[in-house]
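QA checklist item 7 of 12: single-chain prediction sanity check.
[x] sequence parsed
[x] length recorded as 291
[x] structure emitted
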Amino acid sequence: MSSAGTAAVWAEQQIAVVRDDPAGRIALMQRCYHGPFGRAPQHLPFRRAAMSFMRWQLRRGLLQPPSSDRPGSPWWREVNERILRDGCEAVALSGDHSGPTSSRTVDFWKSFADHPTARAWYRAHNGSVVAAYLEHRELAEAESEAERFFMNVVLCRVLYTHALVAAPRISLGWLRPLAPFLGDPRLGMTGIFLQLSRVLPDEYPLRDSVHFYLSNEHVFGQLLDFGVITPRLHQLYEWSAHELAAPGLLDCIRDGALTYAWSFEDRGVWQPPKSFFVQMAKRALPPERRA
């Protein structure tokens, strides 16, 4: 790693090389978890969750360049790029590069690099994700209805997995002793909360309606989204906005409906299905009342 230039400049150079190379993007993310000098044994276990999320994007073709026969998503490319850029800059700062951090989210990644814990990783990763969501809302508005719907699903799920580790009382109520284990990004359990491949085809753009995909959602997905997460959405978004220093996140929810690039008038899609299992989950795991 050359020490020429600031960390932010070096990070931008790395991104420029892989911007239109999906395989290069995933290789760059892998290198970030090896640290600035090629060996970071405490950081490597956290690569599992990051790579799982990115491989899902890769399989769907979301990261394909605009010149491709089947171009990817401009919005997803920007979200992915923000995570990569912030991570690269933090790696450079941990090595031989200098300069002030270019954003608060880079500070989060630097904190994770210095003290690699599950909570620090979520704060860094989700901080970058949320920053990209808020910055690129116009690109999101240009996506299909189904894509915009699942942008909201992805967002609430990544926030929820963070809360499992850092706010177990909010995320799992009386079962909170289990929450840190279920949400630990170093373990395979995290993948079940971010798993959308059983609902969405590995293709982009999505060609069917929201209701079509909802009708094909497996039981666990319904239990998670409507039985566990939906009843505690406001608490989750309020806590996340504070934890990530992102007050704009509160503009992504209104009266129990998710509204990122989604009209409040179309909030009916967030109503829980008439399912015995969903009702049982809501009764078994009610959100705790605020003090």
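[x] summary fact logged: The mean pLDDT is 91.
[ ] second reviewer sign-off
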